[in-house]
From TrEMBL, chain A:
<dbReference type="InterPro" id="IPR010987">
    <property type="entry name" value="Glutathione-S-Trfase_C-like"/>
</dbReference>
<dbReference type="InterPro" id="IPR036282">
    <property type="entry name" value="Glutathione-S-Trfase_C_sf"/>
</dbReference>
<dbReference type="InterPro" id="IPR040079">
    <property type="entry name" value="Glutathione_S-Trfase"/>
</dbReference>
<keyword id="KW-0808">Transferase</keyword>
<dbReference type="InterPro" id="IPR004045">
    <property type="entry name" value="Glutathione_S-Trfase_N"/>
</dbReference>
<dbReference type="Pfam" id="PF02798">
    <property type="entry name" value="GST_N"/>
</dbReference>
<feature type="domain" description="GST N-terminal">
    <location>
        <begin position="5"/>
        <end position="89"/>
    </location>
</feature>
<feature type="domain" description="GST C-terminal">
    <location>
        <begin position="95"/>
        <end position="228"/>
    </location>
</feature>
<dbReference type="GO" id="GO:0004364">
    <property type="term" value="F:glutathione transferase activity"/>
</dbReference>
From TrEMBL, chain B:
<comment type="function">
    <text>Involved in the oxidative stress response and detoxification.</text>
</comment>
<dbReference type="InterPro" id="IPR036249">
    <property type="entry name" value="Thioredoxin-like_sf"/>
</dbReference>
<protein>
    <recommendedName>
        <fullName>glutathione transferase</fullName>
        <ecNumber>2.5.1.18</ecNumber>
    </recommendedName>
</protein>
<dbReference type="InterPro" id="IPR036282">
    <property type="entry name" value="Glutathione-S-Trfase_C_sf"/>
</dbReference>
<dbReference type="GO" id="GO:0004364">
    <property type="term" value="F:glutathione transferase activity"/>
</dbReference>
<dbReference type="GO" id="GO:0005737">
    <property type="term" value="C:cytoplasm"/>
</dbReference>
<dbReference type="InterPro" id="IPR004046">
    <property type="entry name" value="GST_C"/>
</dbReference>
<dbReference type="InterPro" id="IPR004045">
    <property type="entry name" value="Glutathione_S-Trfase_N"/>
</dbReference>
<comment type="similarity">
    <text>Belongs to the GST superfamily.</text>
</comment>
Length: 228, 229
């Protein structure tokens, strides 16, 4: 049954990487239908999703205005969307060097932030036994990453990562950083994110104030109460 | 420091992500000077390296033919090298859909292979206490990633990930796959990679037989031997 929207987005109510892509779709004013997969039932590893994405992880995007083009890996999706649909280049950069710096930040987010923050949640919530040293490892790495971002942002004249403005580079970090603040570092002794990483905090809050973020935060909260 | 090469390449003698980029530099015939950082001594977490890469991880690349442009994150470096220097598209593709699929595979390698395989090594060798359940988690994930690649490659035109030919998408998986097969699956019973993941294995073997890849893997192995590993 075709929903009539330009995109189908396979995603999850909680997963940060899905909301990351949804934020960009909103920012670009693109029409999309979200299918929220049930991880308890392992839907992400079953048909139809696994037929589109053999890795069985969300998000996966289908572009019905481009011959049902299928793409997975959230930051590959971000690049596809801005390159093809951000005609004014509002959320990306055009300078040759800056484009590669933007890619660099996307790869750092995808490899150095997401997976490490994600391992905290695995060991804190899902691992078959409690391993405090593993939990601690990923809490420490979370702080280290926030420190790296803080140091870079403190020196950035615009307070953004690249191009002197908000781009998908900044956007890509937001959903996992939100999880870091609300969960990963919440009860860690002696940690005060706002105080210890002030440039990071200001940058995070500026992103949070965007209309797209407010809209989807509310949407997500509503979905969570439905599925709880 | 003027070594006369086009690039200064900050890397490590064993670190897989460094060798990943070295493959591409060699395959594209680019001149580079490798600076092997002393990770044990913390050289990567201090200036001058952190002036180039505030995250303090290798590799990082400086292009002296482009105003000393500095870039880090191996996936980003690889895209920079092909976009700027692979004019004949020998290791990349030109069509729009192929390009984004290539980028997709690079992100899968960077987020779904490297970090997970890396955690296996962390818990096997470096974590302050032995946690068999953590080692097992990441070993299982290694096999799951092998099976994902196997399933795709069994159906892929030419037996390569994108465009029916070898590209940087394929090359990017080699170092961590190599490391996983050599070291990280020890202690796992009933594992037979060529039998259980035949398309994956055939693909990996084709890649490691490439002239430049073979040469660099031999160099890496020499360094490992010198380090007593």
């Amino acid at each position: 049954m075709y929903h009539g929207k330009q995109f189908t987005l396979y995603t999850h109510v909680g997963g940060p990487n899905g909301w990351k892509v949804a934020l960009l779709l909103e920012e670009l004013g693109l029409s999309y239908e979200s299918t929220y997969l049930d991880f308890q039932k392992n839907e992400q590893k079953q048909s139809p999703h696994i037929d589109y994405n053999p890795n069985g992880r969300i998000p996966t995007l289908i572009d019905h205005k481009n011959e049902d083009f299928v793409l997975w890996e959230s930051n590959a999706i971000l690049l596809y969307l801005v390159d093809k649909y951000d005609a004014e280049k509002r959320l990306t950069v055009t300078d040759e060097k800056e484009k590669h710096v933007l890619d660099q930040w996307l790869f750092f987010q995808a490899s150095g932030q997401g997976p490490y923050f994600g391992q905290y949640f695995w060991f804190a919530r899902y691992h078959p036994e409690k391993v405090p040293s593993a939990i601690e490892r990923y809490q420490k790495e979370t702080q280290r990453v926030l420190g790296v971002l803080d140091g870079v942002l403190a020196k950035s004249p615009s307070g953004w990562l690249v191009g002197g403005k908000f781009t998908i580079a900044d956007l890509s970090f937001y959903t996992w950083d939100r999880a870091a603040i609300s969960s990963i570092l919440k009860d860690v002794e002696g940690v005060d994110v706002e105080k210890q990483f002030p440039a990071f905090w200001a940058w995070h809050k500026k992103t949070e104030a965007r209309d797209s973020v407010k809209k989807l935060t509310e949407l997500q909260a509503g979905l969570r109460t439905q599925t709880a | 420091m003027s070594h006369g090469k086009q690039f200064t390449f900050y890397t490590h003698k064993m670190g897989p992500n460094g060798w990943k980029v070295a493959f591409v530099l060699e395959e594209l015939g680019l001149s580079y000077e490798s600076v092997y950082l002393d990770i044990n001594g913390g050289e990567h977490k201090r200036p001058p390296f952190t002036d180039i890469n505030p995250n303090g991880r290798i590799p990082a690349l400086v292009d002296h033919h482009n105003g000393d442009f500095a870039i880090w994150e191996s996936g980003a470096i690889i895209l920079y090298l092909v976009d700027k220097y692979d004019t004949e598209k020998r290791l990349s593709v030109a069509d729009e859909k192929g390009r984004y699929h290539l980028i997709q595979w690079l992100f899968f390698q960077m987020s779904g292979q490297g970090p997970y395989f890396g955690q296996a090594f962390w818990f096997m060798r470096y974590h302050p206490e032995k946690v068999p359940s953590a080692v097992e988690r990441y070993q299982k994930e290694i096999l799951r990633v092998f099976s994902v690649l196997d399933g795709v490659l069994a159906k892929a035109p030419g037996g390569y990930l994108v465009g029916g030919k070898p590209t940087v998408a394929d090359l990017s998986f080699v170092p961590w796959n190599n490391a996983a097969m050599r070291y990280a699956l020890q202690g796992l019973e009933g594992v037979d990679i060529p039998k259980q993941y035949p398309a994956f294995y055939a693909w990996h073997q084709k890649l490691v037989e490439r002239e430049h890849v073979k040469k660099l893997l031999a160099l890496q192995a020499k360094f490992a031997q010198e380090a007593g590993l």
